Amino acid sequence: MTTAGTGTTVLRLAISGTYSTGKSTTTEALSIATGIPRTHAKTSREILMDVVPGKQVQELSAMELIKLGLRRFEERVANESLPGSFISDGSVVHEWVYGEARMRVGINPGASWGLRTLKKASGFRVRRFYQQYMDIYGDLTKARARRLYDAYIHLPVEFPMHVDGHRPVSEEFRLLSDKLLLRTLDELGLPYYVVRGSIADRVARIVELFDLPLAVPIPDAIDQAQDRVRAATDVLDADARLHHARRHKSLARRVRYALRY
C-alpha cells in the first residue's frame, strides 16, 4: 500500500484468477462493500466487434488474438493510471498469461484434440516468432505490474467452468492458466494471498486482510454485484446470439477459420 500526499492510504489491489473463478462477482461485491472503485478491461467479446467484427473468438488467428490482447492491455493501463485506490478485475498480466497458455494448449483451446493438432502443424513455421513475442510481452506486463499494484488476491479454480458457447476455453486451458498466474505472482515479488470459499467468504477475508472499512453490508453488496454481473452477461449473450443468427458461414469458411494460424 502507498500513502498519498494528504496522508490518505491508497490501495491498488488486483484480483487474480482464470475463467469461471467468480472474479468479476467478487471484485464487484468488494468494490460495492468498501466503496473503492472497481477497474477492468472490456471482455474479449465486447472488444471483438471493434477489432475484428463478424468473428467469434475461436475464429481468430494468432495475430488477431494478439491485437485483442493488446487492446485489453491498453484499456487496463489507461483505467489504472488514475490517482487513488482501485480494485482491478484481473490485472495487466492476465492477457499475457492467456496468450502464453494458448501457445502451449493451442490458440483455440476449446477445439477437439485433432483440430488443435492440425492447427499446431499449420503454425509450425511461425510459432517461434509468436513465442519470442509472448516472452517480450510477458516481461513488459510483469514490469508494469510491479510498478502498478500494491498487492494481489488470487482466486483459485473452485467452481465448475461456465460453458457459454462463446469463449473457446477448455478445462486443461483453465487449469494451466491458474498455474501460470500463481507462478507469475511468485515471480513478481508482490504480496499476494490465495483466498478461497464462497463469494461472501472471499469478500469478508479480503476486507479482513487489508482492514478495509465497510460502506455497504457484505450480503447487500453481493446481491447488488450479482445483479450487475448477470445484467452485463445477459446483454452480451443476447448480442452474441443475434450476431450468430445473422451469420451464415459456408463449410469452406468454417474450415478456413479452423485451420488458419
SS element count, helices: 10
Number of strands: 7
The CATH homologous superfamily is named P-loop containing nucleotide triphosphate hydrolases
Poorly predicted runs of 5 or more residues: 3-7
Instruction: Give the N-terminus to C-terminus distance in angstroms.
Output: 43 Å
Order of strands, widest sheet:
4-5-3-6-7
Roughly what percent helix?
55-70%
Mean pLDDT: 81
Round the Cα radius of gyration to an integer and report it.
Answer: 19 Å
CATH class categorisation? Alpha Beta
At CATH level 2, the architecture is 3-Layer(aba) Sandwich
Shape: globular
Beta-strand residue percentage: 5-15%
Write the H/E string, N to C: EEEHEHHEHHHEHEHHH
Q: Work out the count of structural domains.
A: 1
Multimeric state of these chains? single chain
Specify the structural class: alpha/beta
| Major β-sheet profile | 5 strands, parallel
Quick synopsis:
The chain has 261 residues and is α/β, with parallel strands linked by helices. The protein has helices at 23-34, 44-51, 62-79, 94-105, 113-122, 127-148, 171-188, 199-210, 218-246, 251-259, and strands at residues 2-3, 9-10, 12-16, 38-39, 86-89, 151-154, 192-194.
Walk me through the structure.
It is a single chain. Helices cover 57% and strands 8% of the residues. It is α/β, with parallel strands linked by helices. A five-stranded parallel beta sheet has the order 4-5-3-6-7, sandwiched between helices. Strand 1 and strand 2 (9-10) form a beta hairpin. The relative contact order is 0.19.
Show the helix and strand layout.
Elements (H helix, E strand, L loop, with lengths): L1 E2 L5 E2 L1 E5 L6 H12 L3 E2 L4 H8 L10 H18 L6 E4 L4 H12 L7 H10 L4 H22 L2 E4 L16 H18 L3 E3 L4 H12 L7 H29 L4 H9 L2
Parallel strand pairs: 3-5, 3-6, 4-5, 6-7
Antiparallel strand pairs: 1-2
Helix pairs in contact: 1-8, 1-9, 2-3, 4-6, 4-7
